[in-house]
Amino acid sequence: MYDVAIIGGGVIGCSIARELSRYQVRTVVLEKYAEVGFGTTKTNSGIIHAGHHSSPDTLKGQLVVRGNTLFDQLCSELNFGFARIGELVVAQGEEDIPVLEHLKKQGENKGVPGLEMWDQKRLQREEPNLSHKLVAALHAPSAGVINPYEFAFALIENAVDNGVELKVDSPVLKIDVVKDGFVFHTPHEQIASRFALNCGGIFADKIAQMVGLNDFTINPRKGEEYMLDKRLMGLVRRLIFPVPKPTTKGILIIPTFNGTIMVGPTAEDTDDRYDVTTSYDGAKQVFDFVSNICPSITERETITEFAGLRAVSNTNDFIMGPTNIKGFINVAGIQSPGLTSAPAIAEYVCYILKGEGLVLKPKGNFKHHVPGPPRFGTLGIEEQQKLIKENPLFAKIVCRCELVTEAEIHNAIDHGARTLDGIKFRSRAGMGRCQGGFCTTRCMDILAKRLGLSFHEITKRGGDSWIVTEMGKVKNR
Ligand SMILES: Cc1cc2nc3c(=O)[nH]c(=O)nc-3n(C[C@H](O)[C@H](O)[C@H](O)COP(=O)(O)OP(=O)(O)OC[C@H]3O[C@@H](n4cnc5c(N)ncnc54)[C@H](O)[C@@H]3O)c2cc1C
Question: CATH: 3.30.9.10, 3.40.50.10810, 2.60.40.10, 3.50.50.60. Which one for 83-143+219-308?
């Protein structure tokens, strides 16, 4: 019997797991995919928002600023990729300036630090590659970029180090409400717990329905993102936002933590909870828009593209709290800025659990740190040579585009990678210009040997996403 079962190992489930692991609480995370973070958590813009975009009347508007402030401490403890590069909301005409002023006031009232209006001259000096037609901007220095998958991996690794149990490939298919809690049915086993936290992302309404709750719906909103060639690195130094629309913050220019520029996302409502395809229309929308703001960006620079699904609830806000079913707590409707708010959501959920009767007695021996990946390609020559002396596998380059070594592939597997995407998102092998053309078979070879699998058992992201089939047919879905 666990105290708490967390359904869903996205950034929200992993943040809560880590927060709960500070206490003497028996926690289990049930995740349907082969690894954590493989839902919306790995398909977003990777922005730690400053917090001035969302209204203080909403739960998301209240938690985002607190979430933002927690990232420096978290990054120093968990060593994921994160940098506060700042953000500019740009005005394309004089009519946009009152919107910037409103955002500034809204942010200041919420405690967002350092908000400043920049005139055209300052904007051109600071970001010379943006269109000279832009008339002004609102600067928010506390906004940042993050590798969201690294964040989720580090959170769960630390939670597991502190006693949380993680069960991957464990979709919850059915939930029995019993006298002292719940019994969760997965394909492999039945698990009992006193409390249930519904962190199921775009499936959270379906999970609530398993205990008979029908009081909210999740309506997926798809966002397509386009990753550009690294030779554009440095084209813009800050996150570039247009003035926001009611349903979206708009199409953005995002200098990612690793220097690659990404553009997007679109915002299209969809009924299909599995549709993460990109489209001609999406690309056109993104590049038509972005080229007005930064004329040197063209579609020809695209090296890869992906889409993610926002879990938009019928209230258009986070839905968090106890329900009519005692012990069943929703952490649902976590659309943007859910990634930013995740650490604050975790604190808030612990507060809710305490209110519902869970005793949170701190552990004396809580471990705060995980080491983070080696990142050979970012080191100076002397540091690289030192690593090679310690471990000659640092001298073997597996991914040429991102300069990822064999030692880093082993490190990714040591820290939980079980699929090609698990390796890619932990080490960056396959993330560069050739998109795995060179390193995929090398990664498969190492993964097969380390896990004692044959080539045709290796998957891209678990399930039936095999790269090759036994008959030699290429599948790569
Ligand atoms: C295009 C896009 C851009 C975004 N950009 C940003 C941004 O820049 N900044 C920001 O703050 N936010 C952003 N967001 C929002 C952010 O990505 C989400 O708020 C966040 O990832 C939500 O995390 P989650 O854990 O709730 O969901 P998920 O990551 O989807 O996790 C839910 C998990 O539940 C699991 N699950 C579902 N059903 C079951 C079941 N029956 N049994 C077991 N497991 C189950 C799923 O497999 C999944 O892993 C963006 C979202 C999108 C789509």
Answer: 3.30.9.10
